[in-house]
Amino acid sequence: MSGRNSLQVAPSISSASFVHPSLAALGDPPIRQIDAAVMDYFLIELVTTLKDSSAVATARQKKIEKEMIEAGLLPPPSAPAAPAVPKKESARDSVTSLNSKSGKSVVVDEEEEAVRVRLEAIGVHVGANFTERLCRDRQLFVETLDAIKFICKDIWAACWDKQVDNLRTNHRGIYVLQDNGFKPIARLSSWQGRSEAMKRAKLYAAMPAGIIRGALARLGYHGTVTPEITSLPQCTFQVKLPKGV
Q1: Ranges 13-17, 124-128, 177-181: which has the least confidence
Q2: Going by C-beta distance under 8 Å and a sequence separation of 6 or more, which residues neighbour residue 29?
Q3: What is the pTM of this model?
């Protein structure tokens, strides 16, 4: 009986060694947490929706302030603001929805800041919950660098299908994560020129920055994450953590 058992077990072990890794991946595909295409489309529409929502909220706030000034509940402004020059936008921008509004004024800077804050807040929520799922069967990170490497490898691969191209640190709480072809801004362009495209790319980097900050917060590291874009499609995230962490 022992001889028959050995003859039955041996072929299964030897046959498994001849299976190519690509075929094994087809038979047992890795579990993907995020659909890449859905993530891109979601971010495009999310930015557009929050832009419109922020414009409506700003107009409502200014209307209430005007009514309160007319009623004498608020003091009038000290000096009238300079006339704003309309800033035209077009639906030809490749990363905006076709139903985006145009003819916004210089107040667009304040509105974009409000949109950036809301995008980052959404990213923090997503990153925190997503990290909790990825770390379910992991041990706690002892070193801060291990947590940063987790962001560079696991979070990046799950969200943007690759790993960070470069990681630098001064060993004093500052980490620089560089992606030479950051997916959320890889196909971003504007008919107004490259400088305008890079300006708008900052909005599309706000949610990823929030994802990084939320992931670190869930791991117990609270700091700031600042995206920097100097040339498309490259994006750099500077992570600052308190000293002694």
Answers
A1: 13-17
A2: none
A3: 0.69
